[in-house]
Each structure stands twice: as structure tokens, then as C-alpha cells.
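User: I've been trying to design a sequence by hand for this structure and keep getting stuck. Would you show me what you'd pick, starting by listing the structure so we're on the same page?

Assistant: Good idea, let's start from the same input. This is the structure you sent:
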């Protein structure tokens, strides 16, 4: 048997046999017991052909995708931005760019638009500010007009919850609801058995106890909510270094307007959306917005700074472009409209 196998199937190698040899081997040994187990170490030629065909198809799709991507990239590179039209009220106020355009530049990380507007210095010029001296506050009317057009660096706070809402929440306690049902039954039974008002004493006593617990609980929760609200306001009193009228000064982040030049250092939170002006070894932690743990290496090629992120290393100057605090969903809220 061994000589027969060597003579007829000696060219069947354990590995890397030719397809012709494998075909002959499978055809001669086609009728065997448990063929799947028998040929478990032998290449399945039909599957191999299917895999090869799939590879060719995928390769062709990839080639087409690459060609389409190249064509699209060349088209985008060759396409000039459409002429930007400045709204009349913005132009009349002395600015050459509006808040919608500024928001689209930063939030979409559109470096092409930055270049179209003349770079960061060009955008600063269109915001009627200087990258070195900041905005001029000598004209109070102009500052107010800037706030009217571009908004203020605050978010629309939710209204304080009323006392009666806490009363309603206190009434949702399951124990109190059971006691209320007991009070109702007691009133009905007492009045039927002993008449009014003697039979209502027990039921009314239970109702009075329930109301006492509800109002004490609601009052405590309401006062606590007011304390938390005041504490939250204190935590939000953040100051930042800003250049205005040619010199640095300390001011609240809520007083920032587009065109302000802000100075950031390690540990500072970016107070508003803006563009990088200059700095040294700046690393920005964007994990609070993007979820990425690795810090971003911000410079002229990536000048976009988003509010809510933190400076992890280095220091820099930024041009504020869009104001309004960024909420937990990553969107910017502004009460300017």
C-alpha cells in the first residue's frame, strides 16, 4: 500500500501542493467515509476560487474608491470658496464677518475658510480687533453693539424649580400614598359608622400627618436646591487674562466678546470657541468633548480651539470667535438671539 501511494500520489505534498495535484487527489478520493474530516487539512479549491474572486472584486472596488477620492480631493483643492456676503447690519457696525460664518469656521475645523478670510490675522481684522492690542473699549456704544451682534458668553439658564413642584414630588412617596389610601378608607368607614364629625377624626388626623411630612420634605428640598444654585453660580465665577486696549487685564469669562485676545496657561479651560494666535508647546485636552484621551497638538495648521477643553501643557494666545458656553452635548448655547 505504501509503495502504491508513493507511486501514484508521491507528488501530493503536505503543504503548498499545486491546484492540479489537489484536484486529482480529491477526484480519486472523492468517495470516502466522512470526507469533511478526511480532507480537513486539504485546501478547499472551490472556497479558494471564491476567495480569489472576492479579493479581485474588493481590489477593484478599492481602486475605484481611491480614484474617486483623488478626483474629489483635486476638485475640492481646485474649487475656490464662494464669495462670502457680509450682512448689512454687520457691515454697518464696522465688522466684515458675522457670527454664523465664524461658527462654521471653528466648529467644522474649516482651515480652507480660515485661509479664505486671510488667516487668523485676517479674521481678527474683520472683527475690528488687533492680535496684539485686542479690542478697544473706549467706545462703550461700540462694545454694546458688538455684544448685540455676536452675543455674550453665557448660556440660557433653566428656570428655578418652584416650591409646589417639590410638594408634588414629595407626594409621590409610596408610603405616603398608602397612608393616603388608609386615610380615605378611615374617613368613609368612620363617617358611616359614627357620623360627622366624630367619625372623621382618625382619617383627618392621618391626612394632617401626611400634609405635615409633605411640606416639611418639600421645604427642605427647596432650600437645598436654592443652596446648590447659589453654589453653582459661585463655581462659575471664573476669571481669565485678556488683552484689551493694549494691556492685559483680569476679567470674567462672561464678559468675553468675539475679538477678545485671551491668554491661556496650563490648567486653564478654554472659555469660548476661538483660533490659536501664538504659543509654546501647547497641548489641548479635548476628551470632555470628543472622548479622545490623547491631547491635540494645536498650531497654525490646526488653530481651532473649542470651549470646554483644557490646556494640558504650554501656553498660548487665542482669538475669541464665538461666544456662548458649550453644554454637555457638545453644542454651543448663546442667549444672544
Amino acid at each position: 500500500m505504501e509503495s502504491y501511494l508513493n507511486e501514484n500520489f508521491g507528488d501530493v505534498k503536505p503543504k503548498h501542493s499545486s491546484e492540479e495535484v489537489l484536484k486529482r487527489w480529491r477526484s480519486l478520493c472523492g468517495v470516502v467515509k466522512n470526507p469533511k474530516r478526511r480532507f480537513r487539512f486539504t485546501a478547499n479549491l472551490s472556497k479558494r476560487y471564491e476567495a480569489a474572486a472576492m479579493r479581485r472584486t474588493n481590489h477593484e472596488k478599492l481602486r475605484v474608491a481611491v480614484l474617486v477620492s483623488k478626483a474629489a480631493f483635486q476638485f475640492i483643492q481646485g474649487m475656490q470658496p464662494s464669495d462670502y456676503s457680509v450682512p448689512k447690519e454687520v457691515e454697518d457696525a464696522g465688522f466684515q464677518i458675522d457670527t454664523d460664518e465664524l461658527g462654521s469656521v471653528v466648529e467644522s475645523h474649516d482651515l480652507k475658510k480660515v485661509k479664505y478670510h486671510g488667516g487668523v490675522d485676517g479674521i481678527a481684522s474683520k472683527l475690528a480687533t488687533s492680535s496684539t492690542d485686542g479690542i478697544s473699549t473706549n467706545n462703550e456704544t461700540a462694545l454694546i453693539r458688538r455684544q448685540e451682534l455676536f452675543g455674550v458668553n453665557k448660556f440660557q439658564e433653566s428656570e428655578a424649580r418652584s416650591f409646589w413642584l417639590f410638594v408634588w414630588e414629595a407626594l409621590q412617596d409610596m408610603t405616603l400614598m398608602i397612608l393616603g389610601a388608609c386615610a380615605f378608607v378611615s374617613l368613609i368607614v368612620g363617617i358611616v359608622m359614627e357620623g360627622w364629625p366624630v367619625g372623621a377624626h382618625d382619617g383627618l388626623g392621618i391626612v394632617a400627618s401626611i400634609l405635615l411630612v409633605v411640606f416639611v420634605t418639600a421645604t427642605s428640598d427647596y432650600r437645598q436646591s436654592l443652596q446648590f444654585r447659589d453654589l453653582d453660580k459661585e463655581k462659575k465665577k471664573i476669571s481669565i487674562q485678556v488683552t484689551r486696549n493694549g494691556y492685559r487685564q483680569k476679567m470674567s469669562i462672561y464678559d468675553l466678546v468675539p475679538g477678545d485676545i485671551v491668554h491661556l496657561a496650563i490648567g486653564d479651560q478654554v472659555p469660548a470657541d476661538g483660533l490659536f494666535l501664538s504659543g509654546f508647546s501647547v497641548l489641548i485636552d479635548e476628551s470632555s468633548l470628543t472622548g479622545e484621551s490623547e491631547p491635540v497638538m494645536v498650531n497654525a495648521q490646526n488653530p481651532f480651539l473649542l470651549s470646554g477643553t483644557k490646556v494640558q501643557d504650554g501656553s498660548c494666545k487665542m482669538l475669541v470667535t464665538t461666544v456662548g458656553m458649550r453644554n454637555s452635548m457638545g453644542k454651543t448655547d448663546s442667549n444672544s438671539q
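That's my pick for every position. To get oriented when you compare it with your attempt: Confidence is low (pLDDT under 50) at residues 326-337. The first helix runs from residue 2 to 9.
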